């Protein structure tokens, strides 16, 4: 999958900062770690390695965030979203192992920028959106989670339109990420993507940086309004998506 003996020195220096940043975002919003980390680290590592790795890191992180905010969980929304999310898993399950890495990078850059621009331009939902949106959001979020490891922006955008409480959106999004990451880990193991020593080693080495980011993000979350939170995450998504597109083009 990757040659551990020939990793770039720049990667070894950059990765801890990227992981802390990514999981600071996760800690304050309940999603976004993969959309932040993968576009940057994909300059050095294959997406087919990064996505399964981030699935394992997200699994532990979502359990941490979900446990600390379980009193805010919107269980009714979960009952509607999860079945359609699983439909999306099935649709996206075979794409990651069949699409060339170059096209995955390009698609991930466009995906990150699109969601980021939308979050900046629409920080507030002025009225509750229809429950019918649960169908496309669940399916697209599940497919994006399987292919890109980043279905959280879909879920958070939908939940922000249904609920006005930022802690409720964060806790419920994190619960969806938890279900998503466990399912994805099983799918990746079944297709052989997860069964590599390099992934297990990466998980162990990066765990302390994940914890540091989560703690920092949780503290920031308490001081931000929901509108500020969406704009900050959106700006980070635009930056990382644009950097990946520049890399692919040139």
Query: How large is the count of helical segments?
Result: 10
Anisotropy-based shape: globular
Q: Which residues form runs of ≥5 with pLDDT under 50?
A: none
Q: What is the gyration radius calculated from CA atoms?
A: 17 Å
In total, how many domains does the architecture comprise?
1
Helicity range:
over 70%
Order of helices and strands: HHHHHHHHHH
* Beta-strand percentage range: under 5%
Give the number of DSSP strands: 0
Q: Mean pLDDT score, rounded?
A: 80
Largest sheet: none
Structural class: mainly alpha
**Intertermini distance:** 24 Å
Provide a descriptive summary of the structure in words.
The structure is a single chain. The chain is mostly helical. It has one domain. The chain contains ten helices and no strands. Helix 1 crosses helix 9 and helix 2 runs parallel beside helix 10 (226-249). The longest helix has 27 residues, at 197-223. The radius of gyration is 17 Å and the shape is globular. The model has no long low-confidence stretch (mean pLDDT 80).
Q: How do you describe this structure in short?
A:
The protein is mainly α and 250 residues long. It contains ten helices and no strands.
Question: What topology emerges from the helices and strands here?
Answer:
Elements (H helix, E strand, L loop, with lengths): L8 H21 L3 H9 L5 H22 L6 H18 L8 H21 L12 H15 L3 H11 L3 H25 L6 H27 L2 H24 L1
